[in-house]
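re: ur question from yesterday

yeah so i grabbed the chain u mentioned. its 117 aa long if i counted rite. heres the sequnce exactly as i have it in my notes:
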Amino acid sequence: MNPTELKARTKTFALRIIKLTRAIPKSDEAGRAITKQIVRSGTSVAANYRASCRARSPAEFIAKIGTVEEEADETALWLELLVESGMMPAKKLSALLEEANALTAIMAASRKTASGK
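ran it thru and got these structure tokens back, copy pasting raw so excuse formatting
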């Protein structure tokens, strides 16, 4: 997957997260807190990936792609918490959780490859 395709993929992921947040129950403090956290981390994946594409050095790229990896993994955590807390059904979030885990793996592999050079 080339950088242009990955930019589009991370942007689509961010948009899916934004749409998801509209369905999270916000009737209690936990729902509101998770909504804020997941929209922050989920959209950060796309923003930080774009920043990594503009890195001025290999070290900066490694640092920025590491941030993308962390944010994708954090988003996976919030998705898991939505399911395990009973706020949302697993069936509704399974594809999004799968994508969060896939993006985490892609970024981890990219960071490892870049670090080995």
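noticed a couple things. Helices lie at 3-21, 29-53, 58-84, 90-116. also The mean pLDDT is 96.
anyway ttyl
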